[in-house]
């Protein structure tokens, strides 16, 4: 399952694909049939990547990707998000048996099931996530950026003129030592 680039936006329903970023914010495209593109403010918007979301577990946290894969395996009886609370809780015990009952609320279960219904028909739901191969330094291969030296016509020890420097005043000043 490839959830790379799929985000949930705080304060907005549904899921979005992260298309890009400009100086004003993130450019997002909704995953519903309307394919609405929006620009959200960088400073006020909180984005949560679906591949980074976890569900509280008894011992260790459960990855959302694993929970969605379990829901996909049990897709014959996936309830609607507006189903009875007891039906949601019993279904969630099947697909995420190690989840913490005290910390995972019914609203969280509804949100995950809603997300499943959005994602189940998309092609990225059936494709594998891209493999990340660490290089010798342990940095993700795709995140590593090679810095190329800048081509300059000046020698490296030459100072660039300061934009705030004021021109020297020509005055008849003599320096006197010992005064």
UniProtKB/TrEMBL annotation:
<dbReference type="InterPro" id="IPR049282">
    <property type="entry name" value="BVU_3817_N_sf"/>
</dbReference>
<dbReference type="InterPro" id="IPR041218">
    <property type="entry name" value="DUF5606"/>
</dbReference>
<feature type="region of interest" description="Disordered">
    <location>
        <begin position="136"/>
        <end position="179"/>
    </location>
</feature>
<dbReference type="Pfam" id="PF18347">
    <property type="entry name" value="DUF5606"/>
</dbReference>
<protein>
    <submittedName>
        <fullName>Uncharacterized protein</fullName>
    </submittedName>
</protein>
<feature type="domain" description="DUF6852">
    <location>
        <begin position="53"/>
        <end position="119"/>
    </location>
</feature>
<dbReference type="Pfam" id="PF21186">
    <property type="entry name" value="DUF6852"/>
</dbReference>
<feature type="domain" description="DUF5606">
    <location>
        <begin position="3"/>
        <end position="50"/>
    </location>
</feature>
<feature type="compositionally biased region" description="Basic and acidic residues">
    <location>
        <begin position="137"/>
        <end position="149"/>
    </location>
</feature>
<dbReference type="InterPro" id="IPR049280">
    <property type="entry name" value="DUF6852"/>
</dbReference>
<dbReference type="InterPro" id="IPR049281">
    <property type="entry name" value="BVU_3817-like_C_sf"/>
</dbReference>
């Amino acid at each position: 399952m490839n959830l790379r680039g799929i985000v949930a936006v705080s304060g907005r329903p549904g899921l979005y694909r992260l298309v890009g970023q400009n100086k004003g914010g993130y450019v997002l495209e909704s995953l519903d049939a309307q394919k609405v593109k929006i620009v959200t403010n960088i400073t006020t918007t909180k984005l949560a990547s679906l591949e980074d979301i976890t569900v509280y577990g008894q011992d260790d946290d459960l990855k959302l990707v694993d929970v969605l894969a379990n829901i996909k395996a049990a897709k014959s009886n996936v309830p609607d998000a507006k189903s009875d609370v007891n039906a949601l809780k019993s279904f969630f015990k099947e697909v995420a048996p190690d989840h913490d009952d005290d910390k995972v609320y019914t609203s969280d279960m509804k949100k995950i099931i809603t997300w499943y219904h959005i994602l189940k028909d998309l092609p990225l739901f059936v494709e594998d996530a891209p493999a990340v191969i660490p290089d010798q330094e342990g940095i993700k291969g795709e995140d590593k950026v090679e810095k190329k030296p800048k081509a300059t016509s000046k020698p490296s020890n030459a100072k660039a003129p300061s934009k705030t420097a004021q021109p020297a005043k020509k005055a008849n000043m003599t320096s006197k030592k010992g005064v």
